[in-house]
Description:
By secondary structure, this protein is mainly β. It has one domain: Beta Complex (Metal Binding Protein, Guanine Nucleotide Exchange Factor, Chain A). The chain contains one helix and twelve strands, in the order βββαβββββββββ. The strands form two sheets. The protein has a nine-stranded mixed β-sheet with strand order 6-7-8-9-4-3-10-11-12. The protein has a three-stranded antiparallel β-sheet with strand order 1-2-5, with no helix packed on it. It is globular.
Amino acid sequence: MSGDQVIHGACLCGAIRFEIPATRFCAHCHCSMCRRAHMAPLVTWSGVPDGQLKITAGEALLTHYASSAEATRSFCSICGSQLFYASTRWPGVTSIATPSLCEGPDTLPTAHVFYSDRVEWLACADDLKKCGGPSGVEPL
């Protein structure tokens, strides 16, 4: 994907639409907060530098929830789609729920983070880097 291309995304109902440039990273998160927020065994996030997420429709419908002292999750107030994540633990980065990208990610997942917190009933038999520990990104 060239630097002038744009990746489009939307919530389930389509009320919130957005654009981002090329992503900086893509990873699967196994932390308990992501699992509960998305009601899934893991969440795949793609990241862009702060300021590069452009909401093109429905910005007033975006609800922000402080899920911890350092993190905010943003979702559609109509359909409930979890869309964005920002944290002081990773300053300068806005994370986008990868499944919300209409064209799919331009960067494939490179790691499992918070892997030591994963659910035991999901097998991850891929060759991606597995990270965990207190920071969620320490090599395991």
